[in-house]
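Our collaborator T.R. sent over the components below with a one-line note: 'Predict the complex.' Nothing else. No constraints on interfaces, no templates requested, no preferences about which chain binds where. So this is a plain run: every listed entity goes in together, and whatever single assembly comes back becomes the starting point for the next discussion.
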Amino acid sequence: MADIEEPRPEIQQFLSQRAGALDRVAEPIDAHEAAHRTVAHSLEPARRWIRTPAAVASSARRRPALAAAVITALLIGSLGGFAAGRTSAPKRASVAAAHGSQQDRNTDATSSGGFAFATAGMGPGMYPGAPVMTRLFLRTTSEGVALRGYLQEMDYGGVKPGPSCDPNQWCPPPECNPTTFFSAELSSTEAVAQNGSPVFPLDAPAASRGELSFGQMEGAPVSSYLVQTTSEVATVRGTWPDGFVDEMAPANGWALVAHSGASSASAVEAVLADGTTMSLTNSQGGYSYPASCQPPPPPPPELPPAGSEQPADVARAAQDVKTAYEYLFTHGNDPSNNALYLEDAKNLKTAGDQAKSNFPQASDTITVEVGEIRFLSATEAALFFELKYDGGALFGQQIGYAKLIDGHWMIARDTMCMVFGWAGAQCDPPPDPARSHSAGTAPQPGTYSGPTPTTAAAASDN
Amino acid sequence: MEVLRVVPSLDEPAAFSEFVTAVEPRLRRALVAAYGTDLGRDAAADALAWAWQHWDRVQAMTNPAGYLWRVGQTSIRRTTRRRVHEVVDGREFELELIDDGRGERAVEPALAGALDALSPQQRAAVVLVHGHGYSLSEASDALGCSISTIRNHVARALRRLHAALEVDDG
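Returned assembly:
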């Protein structure tokens, strides 16, 4: 980078922070997600890019015959993708319902009741052993949107699906790499679309497994939701801002609800057999990932040893420390009282405001669990604490510090600066590294999640 | 009876997994820097899904990351085109081409606006090089263009950011 213009330090810092913030929010994509993602339209780049050196191996260049074959293949692929994902079903497509599966075009009643094999032609070139899809239900809403649900058993040719794991590290259990997938095929008079989800284990009676909007280009938008349920769920219900309600009884653990219009649903709920309702959150594009398929937070390091001097009333001091942490790290508290519970509160306000600005949802939902408290002296304590919130990465149990200042136990400045650092806000001056070292995957204060040590060093220099 | 094809058979999952591990960070960071977290990540996922569906072709490419950047841009265009259509029809929609930064606005408010005003290529180039610490060569691979093009993108982006800072300084 020596031969390009160097940015001013504040620009360098800004860009490092932007990069770190983007990295924190846009989570990595693994091969499993990529291989099971449904692309609802052709993504072939414009033709001028198809013959770039990047796109074609050197051995393949300047071979007109081969080039013609490639272009032909691309055209076929594009048309196939277009046909599958956009405005209309392929003319050769057909759906052969087996006995017992019916469709009612006049009502919104579910008409599942038997399995059927769904088949559709995608043109020549089908590969052997392609998965067969089993139809769970076919329902037409009162607005005429046809909702089809299928199960699909994937054949991996004997290869176990899922990531290859380091034996010394956490690995998702086998049920997190299922070979069975739910596929939703939706159509209106104007448009068709497809989406799907692996059949994951359920943490609760029901879970949202994705939101699918289609028909925008055709001028007839439809919004729909995929919901996976247990047998405890009697009905899945979607309610839209205009008052429209669509609901269906799950068929073989799956349900689809839909509404014609551009707005997303204001609520998607599962109604259990006992009449209680369960709201299904629609964060992450309507997708909820099972907790059992997410790695546990790493274990924290040990607390420092207890000091020879202890507070006169250890139980009272421990309660005061816990109170300070619970007050500061509970959403909805009165910030005018922060100075009672936080060391150097006045000078940390700027960093606190920035952290709140960066992650407002986390700030509005934060709570804390305080674990073991150990007194290092009569005026300083170390403790385990874990923050919980929505709208940001969770970093598990951490070590924090508290100090006795003017007769009050307060959260140590170093600890608060560590937490602010997770939210992309930096204290000035920076905290003591020995007292603000984050555990696990949490970023360290003054560093960012760039790919190279150089990036981190440059950021910490600022 | 014909059968619906959803994904190709998995012949080389390990090779594809290695490919994703190698290419994904650059691709995601470039698209997220250029188009924001939501659109950018979706586009990167779409591009990698496309790579899986066209695995034979991707394996023959000399710079698949650069090509997938183009695929991701195509995904972005299709997504935003749909949204524009809603506006033409007078329907309510939210244009979310650029994410709000979430990490730096309070430090230099003018810089966030200036960065958002750059072209997607300039924004991706300057964030990759000066935000993530990629070399010009790595960034040129990620964006599928020459090193001199990257150098120009970065230089122009920095000039605009400097100008924004000077205006802000008053």
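Summary for T.R.: Residues 1-11, 83-106 of chain B have pLDDT under 50 and may be disordered.
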